[in-house]
Predict the 3D structure of the following.
Amino acid sequence: MDFVYKMLYRLVQLTIKIVLKISGTLKVYGRENIPEKGGVIVACNHISYLDPPLVGAVLPRVATFMARAGLFEVPVLGWMISRAAFPVDRENPRPSSIKDAVARLKKGELIVLFPEGKRSETGELLEARRGVEVIARRSKAVIVPTYISGSNRALPFHAKWIKKADISVVFGKPIYYNFTPENSLKGDSQLQHSIGSTIMKAIGELKKEFEHKNLSEK
């Protein structure tokens, strides 16, 4: 079943990439920053419903996603999502969801997370929510900050189909989280906040670099 699933996964990846390239351009930067093995958190900004399949399509490894619990109740779609994701309550992450994510990371899986917990309607970065911080702390997995550009133009809020747009995905340098004696002196909430802030700051730096590069090329 693993072999069949991986084959289907690669087929879906190819299909998504073809659709996106037909609808515009799709550029990927920093793919070499994804560790080839071991537990990895790919932490992305979130600006469109297109983001999860987009990131899954361009990753060199099979990915697992944390998906909104309500999606698993949708006929057919819920069954499809259950093959590549596990449910999470965005507003109040349950301990079972966090334990599941941590266990998967410790087994060496790659999990795609959206630290902001919801789509940004303006495209501006939001603060990280508590869930990703807890997962990062407990798993001590490598974190790869990732910046997505253009998916909100390809699939805006309330759009019914993909529009023509230039899309880019930028994978940044890995962040290696270490729970050091110095860190242990911080309060739990303070430490969690610092992890979330570090992730969002790294994504913000990728955004600045990407926008500067685009402006300089025009």
